[in-house]
Design goal:
- The protein has 480 residues and is mostly beta strands.
- The longest helix is centred in the N-terminal third of the chain and has 8 residues, at 77-84.
- The protein has two helices and 31 strands.
- The chain is 3% helix and 42% strand.
- It is flat.
- Strands 6, 7, 8, 9, 10, 11, 12, 13, 14, 15, 16 and 17 form a twelve-stranded antiparallel beta sheet that branches. It has a six-stranded antiparallel β-barrel with strand order 23-24-27-30-29-28. The protein has a two-stranded antiparallel ribbon with strand order 25-26.
Amino acid sequence: MSTNDHRLIHAAEASPGKLPPLPQWLEGCITSHSLRPTNVEAESEKITGDPLIAYLRTAGTSVSGDVTAEVAFREIDWLLKLAFQSNWVESPGAGYGEVTGVVAADDEFGTSSGTTFGAGNLYRTSGLAGVNSGVFLAIAGSGQDVLKVGAGGTLTDEVSPSVAARIDKAGFQAPAGDIQAVADGLISTTTDFTAHPELAVGIPFKIGGRFLEPATRFDTATLNRGVTPTKIEPNKLTCTDLGAAWAPDLGAGKTIQILTGDYLDIGRTPITERAEFTFLDWATSYHIWLAGITCNSMNWQMDRQSMMRPVFSMQGLTDGTAAAEAAVPLVENGGLSMTTGENLGEIMEAGLVDEAESFVKSLGLQLENNVQAEGPLNKKHNTRYDRGNAILRMPMTARFATPTRYDRFRSGAQTSFLIPMSDSEAGYMLKIHAAKYVEGDVSPSAGRNNPTEFRGVTQGVKDPITGKMMTLVRMPYLPL
């Protein structure tokens, strides 16, 4: 046996250590792992008179190790789910269902979910061949179980799509000139924001469509960004995370797109998966399986203009071998890993309009879940998980444009960050709802007249308004 023909697959468990009747196996796109099963041995207290004999008994098993992965759209979502200890909350506002077929001549997708697709809404298709996976605008002719799009003949026929092929709502497009940017967010003339339940207070969304579709974006480039709604009214979205460069814009003639996504909040109940390794050079292809896998901690270092490779420290309950399972590949962006931008994100203070730009240069997420596996010692395997409090520490380097901004931060003002984590038009956005200074120091940046630089540690806290500490939003992937 060698490790040359080696892969990892995974499936969600119904409960720790137990698969559902029909599990869906997916390929695990990772960089490396050190997962391994271990017997926990207890030394007997018997007195034998022979000091060379050690009596051991197996008190249980443990599974542990690290998984390192490059951040690519949806490819490590199972690891992020385990780290946040929460299932992805799918963006509401539309029924979800498997795609039953694609008819290229009619620019149509078909489903059997009973969903009524509305013209003007944006829908994301996934798990389909090539150009059939993407974000599409529903046009006239859409209806129940039929999504008609203006693809202009670029779709290809699919009679029997993969069972993983789905359609999800991804936002909406406003009529020309309908949405305007104002000092504290967005207003509309006819668009009713409350009619789009995918918009939710505290969950970031993105303003503006693809860079190559300027008609769906504001002419003021700094408005095409991620923001967080704090109040949703029929014709107004009051938002935070607008940034120092936010400015009013009439949006004249623009069909502004609003992109929404699924999200993760930090949960309270351990989420588990079964991870399996296939060694394809055995005479019969077999898996070594590790059940009840969950994430006890995540260490994710983010620096500007760099590739992101979080490390997930895992633990599990049991192990064994089984015949190989068929798995569905999940590569929706051509395998491209995401890199951060020039600046990670701006620093926002709760209830304060930013008078000058202060931003995060680098940020580390150190999330501790304090998960403990437990079970009777007279059984070989652990049987359950107990969870302690989640602790989020964030080593960071940041620049403050004014001494006042730093003074407020240093004195314990509640601070938030919104970090676009992608080199594409969308991808992921990380919202730290509330954080406070713990320790650190300040120093002048290199060169004259540069902002003051802070190096130290902040810690996540529960936002008293939203009740959240950290949210990760999975936006529709829109390649440049």
